[in-house]
Every structure is written in structure tokens, then in C-alpha cells.
Amino acid sequence: MPQKEYTAPWEQAFNRILTPIEEFIHRQTTSGILLMLCAVIALFIANGSWAEAYHHILETPITIGGGKLMLSMSLHHWINDGLMALFFFVVGLELKRELLVGELSNLKAALLPIIAAIGGMVLPALIYMGFNPSGHTFNGWGIPMATDIAFALGVLALLGSRVPTALLGFLVALAIVDDLGAVLVIAIFYTEQLSFPALMAAAVVLLLLASFNLGGIRKPLPYVLLGIILWLAFLKSGVHATLAGILLAFIIPIRPKYNPKRFLKRANQLLKEIGENYRSEPNIVKNYKMRAKVRALETGIHRVQAPAQVLEHHMHIPTAYLVIPIFSLANAGVPIEWNELGNTALHPVSLGVIAGLVLGKLLGISGFVWLTLKAGVGTLPPSLNMKHIIGASLLGGIGFTMSIFIAELGFAHSPEDLLMAKTGILLASLVAGITGYIWLFINSTTQKPPL
Q1: Cβ atoms of 353 and 428 closer than 8 Å
Q2: Exposure check for the chain: N or C terminus, fewer CB within 10 A?
Q3: Tell me: the pLDDT tens digits for 274-298?
């Protein structure tokens, strides 16, 4: 009996083919589940005997460099200003792909989620302003505008095959537009005092990066090195440093080095030659000619792929499984006074955030979709109805990552208001996640084939 060839589990990945959107959903779904776990851990630590140590560790200063090139920030700031720049870099790559070749590249098809996202940003902000019309608490108006796509997809993953595939696409497109809106809000309205020399330095770096792109440089290292300098310039400029990630992502080339037609012709030739070499000596360790052909094929495989998509593929894992969970651990640790929870929830900041995320997202997203359909401007995919859109609108109220990030910016000098905002975000995200899950569970049936 011939011996059966053994294939290790990791080798089976060679046979798996995922589109960019499938890969995005898979990673974001897993990240959302991990994010939930880290949030629970952070809450447990912040309300237990380790609370003091937890806050002490976050405030530990970390210094890099020396002299005039010294950079010193607390661990908390390194996470929010440094690690989160990687998150925004991946967000920028996703935005670029979606706008050029993805769900948002066809304006007619993208019109409905774009309008829904606008409604889901405007109405929550207006509701928050209704509770906080003036004073320092007004600064939190941008908090309920954001949707956490990882958390939302994590909830959808729990529903499994009951969720239509088209609803995933709608929610992803909506969240991408939502992210773009949040980035613009941060850049325009949550900017501190500007340093024009630092802004000029950032502009020079951006011009150099653009020249690299136009000059045909496709290797990532030059972009990474200048990207670090761009981040430092933004850090000193007063504009939030994480926006460097977005701008860098938009400059990374989206065109590959090799033309696909040229690559296909060369790859077929190499495969033929590899086959001929294999027949003369099947052991690749001994067959130096076959090794050389395989290496040439590997080089072609790398160069036929767009650098932006390669980086997006490689950066998804550290971002989804490391950066976002660390951010959650560092920012979700909200001390909760259970006896005062009712008063906390009724604080204008908490109330504005909760009402904005839960009611604002529900009415803004589903309301704008309904108006768009009535006006005959857009159409829903055949597998979707307004009940599905209402479910997605409820899940849109999960504003965890980006909402906390904006809260940190808006209430950087007001710890009490920041605590109220974070409490509101956690309560709203919990309510939105549970109600969205229950609504979709009741109003959806198992899809065939399963998701």
C-alpha cells in the first residue's frame, strides 16, 4: 500500500484562497472576539485589588533616544499615540482599497452605505450636543459618531449562518465610511495648538514619499523609514500623530511592479522549467537549478502584487491580534462605582454618549436608508430588508475602539468627564451589541449555503 502523504495543518493554508474582503471580515471578526475578552479583563483589573498597579503601569514613563533626539512619554501615551498609528495605517490601507477597487469603488452600489454612514455620524453628534450644548463637556460631541467594526463583526459571527452575506458587506462599507468620517473629525476638530515648523517638516516628508511612489519604488522599507519620521513630525505638530498612519497608507503604491500578463507568461515558463529540472533530480536540496527557478518565481510573485495590498495583508495580524487588544487593555479599565452607576449613567456626558450611540445610530442609519429608498436613489440587495438594516443600525452603536480614542482626545485634560464618557461608551456598546444580536436572531433565518 502506498504511503499516504502527510500534510501539516499549516501547509493546508496553501490551498485556501481568500478575497481581500473575506480576509478583512475573518480578521476583524476574530479581533472583535479578542477585543471583548480584553475589555472584560481590563474592567476586572480596574475594579479589583490590582487597580492601583494597573494605573501605575500605564503612567510609567518610557524614554527613547537622548539629548535633543530624546522622546519621553508614558506607556499609555505610547499605546495611544504610537501603537494606534499602526491601527490607523491599516485603516488607511483598507480605505484606499475600498475606494479604488472595493465596495466603495462603484458609487451607485456604495451610495446606500455612504448615506447610511453619514446619518449614523450626524444624528449621534446632534443628540450628544442636545445633552451638552455648551461648556467643556461639549468637546465630546465626536465620541458617539464612531462604529467599532471589529466588535460589530464579532457579534455577527455569533449569529453564524442566520446573517445574510450582503449584510456583512453593507456593514463593512458603512464602517469604512464611518472610519473616514472619524479621521476627518480628529484631524479638523481635535487638533491642539499647531507647530508650523513641524507641519512644514511633515509636508516635506510627504513630498518625498510621493516622489518615491511616482518614481516606481515598490519596496516597503523606504516608506517605513520615512513613515517613522512623518509620525515624529506629526507628534510635534499638534495634529494627532496617528493621522500620519492614514496619510502614509494613502501614499503606499497600489500598482504592482510587474504587469500581471507579463508575470503569467514568465510564471508558466518557470513552472515548465521547474518540472523539467524536477525530472532530472526530484530532491530540491541537491537540485540547484530547480532552487534558482523557484526563487525567481518567488520574486515574481512578490512583485506582481500591489505593495499596499501586501502591507495590508501582513499588517492585519499584528493590528488585529496585538495593537487593538493592547489598546483595549489600556483604555477599557474604567473603575465602576456600582452604587453610583445610576447617577453616572445620567451624567450629561454619559447620557449624551449612550443616547448618541444607541438611539442616534439606530435612527441615523436606518432612517437615512429608509429615506434614500423612498426617494428612489438607492436599492437594497435582494437578500436584505429593513429589518436587517435596523439590526445593523443597532450594531453600529458599538463604538468601542474609535469612540474611546476620541474620548481620550476630547477630555485629555478632564479626567472626570473622560471617566463618564468611557462609562457611557461601555454601557452603550453593551446595550447595542445585545439588542442588535437579539433583533437579528429573531428577524433572520438560516442562510443556504451557510456563511
Answers
A1: yes
A2: N
A3: 888 888 888 888 888 888 888 888 7
Pair 226, 205: CB distance under 8 Å: yes
Residue 421: predicted pLDDT: 94
Give tens-digit pLDDT for 80-102.
888 888 888 888 888 888 778 77
| 420 grid coordinates | 463618564
257: which 3 cell numbers?
511592479
Q: Does residue 222 have a cis bond before it (omega within 30 degrees)?
A: no
Cα torsion for 323, 98, 144, 400, to the nearest 10°? -30
**Percentage of residues in the chain with pLDDT exceeding 70?**
90
pLDDT at 263: 78
How far is the CA of 231 from the CAs of 48, 408, 423, 440, in angstroms?
A: 36, 19, 30, 41
Instruction: Tell me what the pLDDT averaged over the chain comes to.
Output: 83
Nearest to 152 by CA among 178, 127, 121: 178
> Per residue in 332-366, pLDDT tens?
888 888 778 888 888 999 999 999 999 999 999 99
Confidence at 164, pLDDT banded by 50, 70, 90: confident
Cα distance between residue 72 and residue 62, in whole Å: 6
Residue 12 has pLDDT above 70, yes or no: no
At which residue does the C-alpha cell 499638534 appear? 238
Which is more confidently placed, 251 or 310? Answer: 251
Contacts of residues 74-79 at CB distance under 8 Å and 24 or more positions apart, as own/partner, are 75/330, 76/330, 79/326, 79/327, 79/330, 79/331
Contacts of 249 (CB under 8 A, 6+ apart): 88, 89, 90, 91, 92, 93, 95, 96, 308
Query: Which position has the grid cell 507579463?
Result: 262
Cα distance between residue 396 and residue 113, in whole Å = 12
